[in-house]
Amino acid sequence: MRFATPMTTALRTTDDALARIGLALARFARPVRDGLIIAGLARAAYYFFVQDIQPWSFLGIDARAYWRVDLAHPYLESSVGGISSYLYSPAFAQALAPFGALPFEVFYGLWLAVSLAILWWLVRPWPWVLPILSLPIIYELGVGNVNYLLAAAIVLSFRAPSLWALPVLTKLSLGVGVLWFVVRREWHAVAVFAASLALIVAVSFVLSPSAWMDWVAFLSASRNENDQLLMRFAAAVVLVAFGALTGRPWLVPIAVWLAQPNIILNSWVILLATIRLRDGVGWGTSPSATAA
């Protein structure tokens, strides 16, 4: 006879409690949704027209950081929170280097088109989310950050684990999502991710070893410029582990959002990945179908 361990009991209890909460919320789904829509639109209007912060007045301010990066010295004038500062790995800059031949307006237009396509794909099952998160959605489209790409990578990584290389090579702490495969003992997926990341880093390092040294130095110098990252990262680890053990892949993007070095307004769009992962997976079953 097998006896439940305290951890198993706690997991089952929490799992059952969440299921009951979900059923209770489902009874009031329409009024809750309508209330969130009103709140989301009101918050966006206040931000844009009362606080008078309008991203369309500084279009592409983040995208400019990825355009025509000095590959030899990508961090020479970079700083956390700096305008159009490049903060990510040399590999990301090298991947986008060919687009530096384009005028910035063309580059930003392409970036915006890709972001819009990803946005529509993410929210298509629940389009009513658009007004709820209208503020971060519009802001992200305006400044041209990487968050739509990150959200898409998280969803698709359940079928293609190598895609976790993108979050890791932009913001290291986002790699917390890989723990999903570790907790579920999906060692093939872990190996695919590790091999893909190692290959990308190796090729990039050969192309510009000094840039990688500079990135390590930059990260070290900036390690204190975050908002309680250690506590948030610990919470993210717990979320991923619980999600993996109870078959809730939609908890992974929430954990990734928590694990960012700094949580900023437009980074909330990462949470849109939960829509495509909402159906969950059963205990011990494959998560691949959730990315359909």
Overall pLDDT score: 90
Low-confidence stretches: 281-292
Through-space gap between termini: 39 Å
Strand tally: 0
Structural class: mainly alpha
Strand content: under 5%
Count of DSSP helices? 15
The overall number of domains is 1
Fraction in helix:
55-70%
Oligomer: single chain
What shape does the CA trace take?
globular
The biggest beta sheet reads: none
Radius of gyration: 20 Å
Q: Would you write up a description of this structure?
A:
There is one protein chain. With 292 residues, the chain is an all-alpha fold. It has one domain. α11 crosses α12 and α13 runs antiparallel to α14.
Quick summary:
By secondary structure, the chain is mainly alpha-helical.
SSE blueprint:
Blueprint: H1 6-27, H2 29-50, H3 63-66, H4 90-96, H5 104-123, H6 129-132, H7 134-143, H8 147-156, H9 165-170, H10 179-183, H11 187-207, H12 209-221, H13 229-246, H14 251-258, H15 273-276
Helix pairs in contact: 5-8, 11-12, 13-14
Features:
single chain; 292 residues; disordered C terminus; mainly alpha
